[in-house]
Amino acid sequence: MTNHLNAIILGIGNFPFFAVIYTLPILAITLIKYRRLNLVRIGMNYAMVLYMCCLISVVLFPLPTAEQAAALNSHDIQIIPFHFIADFIREPHFAMKKQVILQVLCNVIMTMPIGMFLRYYYGTSKRKIIVITFGISFLIELTQLTGIYGIYKGSYRLCDMDDLIANTFGGYLGYRFIASIERAIPAIKAFDLPVVRKGHSYYHQ
User: What is the rounded distance in angstroms from the CA atom of residue 8 to the CA atom of residue 27?
Assistant: First the structure.
């Protein structure tokens, strides 16, 4: 958990740099595509940039030291679905059982923002969100399996089928959460503001 917290702090620290880079594209895409100013839409884009910074940091960091990297010579993968159940039963100590469950919960929570964002921002269907989240999780596991695509001679983290399942389920839960409350919250279009240019309003009813 300490490593994950440090990785999240690193992601937050890098956020201002990427926020500056994406400021003009976010504003340009919002105005060109929607022809209106929506501060909520812009804010959500920034929130996703922050989320992606943290996600990438958690996936990649901490990197192995030079000595650890030199010792890497295998690509570790766990392909048995729900193997965490066997790990939970096998562990004799409560603290270790707690760690197993916490690992699964963290993987579920990690991808919930993807489902929430896609559902609220784009109105994406459940099936597409499951496919997209699965694809993102698969990319994460492939990155870990290949040692960041050959940068390291072996994997410094375990590529785990259970992580793939938990991440995909997290995206689905994010979708379900927004779908269950969307009738009680304003649609993102409700925050649209007219954009006036040379005396003409680009607000569309």
Answer: 26
Give, in order, the Cα–Cα distances in Å from 195 to each of 36, 43, 133, 150, 167: 5, 17, 34, 48, 39
The pTM for the full model equals 0.87
**CA–CA separation, 176 vs 116, rounded Å?**
8
Task: Give per-residue pLDDT as tens, 76-127.
Answer: 999 999 999 999 999 989 989 999 999 999 999 999 999 999 999 999 999 9
Instruction: Compute the C-alpha angle 187/190/194, nearest 5°.
Output: 150
187/44 Cα distance (integer angstroms):
13
Work out the burial of residue 55: count CB atoms within 10 Å of its CB; fewer than 13 is exposed, 13-18 middle, 19 or more buried: buried
Instruction: Give the residue from 203, 205, 204, 124 showing the smallest Cα distance to 171.
Output: 124
109: Cβ contacts below 8 Å, ≥ 6 apart: 170
